[in-house]
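Thread: Newbie trying to understand structure tokens

Hi all, I'm a second-year student working on a class project, and my supervisor (Dr. K.) asked me to get a predicted structure for one chain before our next meeting. I've only ever worked with sequences, so writing a 3D structure as a token string is new to me. If someone could post the tokens and maybe explain what I'm looking at, I'd be very grateful. Here's the chain:
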Amino acid sequence: MNKNKFAITPPMGWNSYDYYDTAVNEEQVKANARYMAENLKEFGWEYIVVDIEWYAYDAGSQRKQYQYIPFWKVEMDEYSRLLPCVQRFPSAKDGKGFGPLADYVHSLGLKFGIHIMRGIPREAAHAHTKILGTNATANDIADPANICDWNPDMYGIRPDAEGAQEYYDSLMSLYAEWGVDFIKCDDICRMDMPTAKKEIEMLYQAIQKCGREIVLSLSPGPAKIEEAWHYETYANMWRITDDFWDSWKHLLPMFWRCELWQNHVSEGCFPDCDMLPLGKLGMGFGEEWECKFTKEEQVTMLTLWSIFRSPMMIGTELTKLDDWTKSLLTNAEVLRLLKYSNGARQIERDDKHAVWCSMDTEDNTGYLALFNLEEDKTTICVPWNRVEDYGIYGKKGKELWSGEEIDLTGKESILVPGHGAKLIKIY
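---
Reply by user tm_fold:
Sure, no problem. This is what the structure looks like when written as tokens:
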């Protein structure tokens, strides 16, 4: 497994995509970083991640027609490596790349991440630009038949071609020089193209050589359960779902997805439930909207992500965070599960409810999560025999969202709101 000492617990942070789509700029990134440092950092939130097409000119300007403007101008250096578009990231001028922005984020006590696409820029292949560390050029390693079916920016790599590994090595070397702490690589996790599996290995090898501790996150999902060993060996996070949005039809399947992957959560290796679409969303998609989950559904999402120990990336514009959403993201007793619990298991599930258990790693207590999958409130019978078989025996509890103390002696069922959850620490 991909053991490390820098991401032994699920990464927590903010990602620009759910609010800004392709169009986030430097000042917006800085504003969200400042908010995180001042309001969320103490609760474990630390990564600031710039998502897709930071290298593209005029990104978002033709959104009604294209999400990704095909064959448009991109910023790129002489070695076929994409650079931040100075139109949106002015501190990147004169070849500084993301170095100045990463320095700013680091000055706040946070970590900096970027999104990349698998492969090499099509523009580089067409122009036959150089690759650092080899006499090969971009066209020598690019495979024109190996393309992403939803983004027009890149060609896949010919893994065995001279210069292919050198290209990925040069990318990671550049990112390490900038001070990048986190890379979300897209068009790779579900292995749509036959080279994607090998390109994951190439990315991993390049990171090992770069001299910097960099988290490797793979997207989009769903990841292949039959490739679990491969993900655990070469990555820190891998998406177990396609893009996750704020609707019950997206949230409900996460119970069986988490059940499928529950045995593959380990130190430094985390199946990823995707971003948290909370608060204000969608400005870059054409119209800002308020999270469409009910409050109870938001509690359900945070409860499942926490007990399963998924990485957590906030998708909202943080500077517009409302008190309710902030209270979800700053519940220290719930977020504790990300760092100080393990062994989460779904011990019961049907069409109406689900039950999860996990253990605290420090104080010999257990956690019981009850999920109501129906629209109306209902009492959920607690399967105490299965809870005890799991290893939880306490008779007192505390519901971590409400703070209510509960006497569990003889308590056979618990009332749970429609599409809601109760998360109980048992001691």
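A couple of things are worth pointing out once you decode it. The chain has a mean pLDDT of 97. The two ends are 33 Å apart (CA to CA). Feel free to ask follow-ups in this thread.
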